[in-house]
## 1
Amino acid sequence: MSGVPTSFHLGPLVFHTYGFGLAVAVYVAYTYARRRLVRAGVSVEPFGRFAIWLLVSGLIGARLANIATNWHYYRGHPGRWLAVWQGGLASFGGLAAALVVGLILQRRWWPGTALAKFTDALVPALIAGWALGRVLGPQFMVNGGGHLTHQWFGLHYVGQAGKRVPVPLIQGAEDGLLWLALLAVERTRLRPATGVVTALGMIVWGLVRSLDERLLLGQESHSGSVGVQIAGVILAVAGVVTLVVHWPGRASRDSEIPSKVQGSTTLPS
C-alpha cells in the first residue's frame, strides 16, 4: 500500500485513518443530499435530525450484523461487542437498520412528500458518499484488501500477507460510475418518473456488491460473505419491483382505468 498509515497520534489520542476518511465521506454525502432535497422542493428543516438518526441506527445495525456473522469470535467476550475502534462493521446490517428507521421518520417528518420523490433525491447522494467512503475509509484500514494476487494492480495492506486485490478502490470506482450513471438518467425522459432513480440504484448497487463479495472477497470477508451476497440479491430484487411499479406510463395507465369504468357506468341524462 502507499505510505499512508492506518492510524496517527495526536498527543495521547490515537486516530484511525479510515475513521477520519469515513467522517469526510459522511459530511460530503450529508451536504450533497441536503442540496438535492432543496432542489427537489423538499423541506430540509428536519434533515439534520434525520441524518443523525440514520447514522446512529446504521452504526448499531452494522455492529450487530458483524457480531452475528462472527459469533465464534464474540461469543463469551462481551467486552469485544463494544470495541468498535478495533473494526467490525457489516455494511448491509447498517443499511437494513438505517432503512427501517429512515422509512419511519420519513413518514413522520415529511408526510406530504412521496417516498419515491424523497429517495430519488437521497440515493445519488448516498452512492456518491459511499464511493468516497470506500476510497478514504477501508483503503486505509487493517485487512482492507481482497484476495491474494500477483497482478500489477495488487497492493499491500496492513495485517494481510502478500499483494491483495484493492477492493476498496475498485468499489469506489464502481460506485462513482453508478453515481454518474444516475445523474445521466436524471437528464433523460425518465426524469419526471419518480422512483426510477431509486430503483436503478438499488438494482445495480445490490448486484455489483454481491458480485464483489463473491469474486473479490469471498470467505476472507469478516462480515459474513454468504449473507452479504444474499442481501445484495434481495436489494436488487426489491429494486426491480420498485422499477416495475414506477416505470413511466404505468401510473397514467392505472389512472385511466377508474375513469373508463366510471364513464361506462354513467347513465345518459
## 2
Amino acid sequence: MTSHAEALGHHEHHGPPAAHQSSRVDPRVLGMFLFIASEAMIFGSFFAAYFFVRVVNPDAPGTWPPEPFHFPVFVAGVNTIILVTSSFTMHWALQSIKRGQRTAFLAGMVLTFLMGLAFLLTQVIEYLHVGFNTGDGAFASVFFGLTGLHGAHVAVGLSLLGMVIIRGFRGHYSPEHHHGVELPGIYWHFVDVMWIVVYATVYLI
C-alpha cells in the first residue's frame, strides 16, 4: 500500500504542464526566427512608404532620385560586397566552433565584426557626402529612413558579434554549446539579406 502511494506521489505533477517543444527546431532558434519575422514587418512598412513616395513624387515624375540629386550607387555596391562577404565569414565561424576549431572560429568572428564595422563607417561617410539631407524632400526622408533603419540593425548586430567575440576569447563556446554563436549568426544573415533588398530597391531600381 505504501509503495503504491509512493508511486502515485512520484508521478504527480504540480503546476502548469511542461511546454511542448518541437523535435526539429530548437526553441531558441524558433524564437529568433519569430523575432526576425517581426523585424521584416517593420522593414515592410518602410518599403511601403518608400514606394508611395516614388509613385506620387510631385517634383519629377518618372525620375528617381529627383534632379539634381544622385545616389552613390558605386559606393553602396562596394558596401554590399563587404556585407555579403561577412555572411560567409560568419558561417565559417559557426561551422568552425561546431567542429571544435577555436582559432578558426575566433578568426571568422573577428573578420565578420571588422567587415560589419567597415560597412557602417562607410555608410556614415556616404551620409556626409551624399549631397542632400532629410529636409530636401520626401525622397530624402525615405532614403535616410530606410537606409538608417538598416544601419541601426547593423549596429545591433555588431553589438551581438562583439559579445560573442569577448565570450569566445574566454572559452565559453564548444561543439556541444554553440547556440550563443548560432543565434547572432542568424540575425546577421538577416541583416545581410535585408541590405541586398534595400540596395536593389533604393539604389538600382
## 3
Amino acid sequence: MHTERDSGAHDLRHHGDAEVRDDGAQLVDLAVNVRTGTPPAWLREHIAGSLGGLAAYPDGRGARAAVAARHGVPVERVLLTAGAAEAFVLLARALKVRRPVVVHPQFTEPEAALLDAGHSVERVLLRAENGFRLDPALVPEDADLVVIGNPTNPTSILHPAGVVARLARPGRTLVVDEAFMDAVPGEREALAGRVDVPGLVVLRSLTKTWGLAGLRIGYVLAAPETVVELERAQPLWPVSTPALAAAEACVSERALAEAAAAAVRIAADRAHLVAGLAEFGADGVRVVGAAEGPFVLVRVPRGDVVRGHLRGLGYAVRRGDTFPGLGEGWVRWGRGGCGWLCGIG
C-alpha cells in the first residue's frame, strides 16, 4: 500500500483553464474538458427563456424532480449544487470525519476542500505500472471518507462499478465523482441511482458535456440524511434560476439522447487521438491505456518542454505535475484530432 499525507508539493488549485487565460486565450484549447460546440443552440435558447423570471427567488423543485426522475430515485436523494466543486466544499464542511482518504491521481478539488476545512488528508496513490487501476485493499480499513473519480480525471481510467462499490462499508462515506460519466457510452460502470451501496455519495456535473462551466450546475445523489446535512451547509438559493432551467433541460429525453450520441463521437475521437500519439512511441511517448473519458493521459520525455513547444504551435494541453502521483513528464490531452501531432517530433 502506498499512502502519503499532503506535503504542499502540488498546486491543488491549478486547473486546465489556467492554460488558456491571458496569453493563452488564442490557443486551441486541449486543456479544458468541456465538449466543443456547446452549449447547443436549443439549450442556450432555453436558458435565455428563463431570464424573464430573474425577479423571483429561484425555485429548484422542478429541476430537483427532473434529476430524480432521470436516475430513478426519490427527490429526497437529490441535492442541486453550483457545480460539482460546491459539492466537494459541502462534503468537507458538513460531514464529521476522522480519517478522510483521497484516491489519486484525480481531480484535486476534493482534497483542497478538505484541507481548507481543517482536515488532515491521506492519499492513496495508484501507480502507472498497474495502469492506475483501483485495488480496494489499498484504502485503509478505518478510513471514514473515501473519494474517487470514475472515470478518473486525469487518467481517463474507468473503474468497474463492482470494484468501486467494494470500498463501501457501514460507517464510511464513499464519494464517487462521476463528472465525466455521461461521456462514457452507455454510462457503463455508473453508480448514480444505486441505493443499495451503504454511504454512497455520487457527484454529477452538467458543465462538461453541455458547455456550462460559466453557469455552474451539478448535483449530488445520496441518502436522504446525507442530503439534509449537505443542504444545511448551503447558503439560501445556491443555484440560480438560469442554472435550474439548464439542469431540467439537460436531463430531458432530448438531452440524454444527444449526450449518448456525443459519447460515441468522443470515443471515436479519442481512438483517433490515441492512434496518432502511438506513432511517437519510438520517441518515448506513452499513452495510459484503456482511456474511457473525453481526455487521455500521456507520458512524454521532458513534459514541460513538450507543453512549451505545443504552445508555440498554437495548442494548450494540461500539465500533469499538479496531480499527486504524477510528475512533470505527464500531460493530459483533451478532445481533438491528431493531424497537428507532427509538431512534437
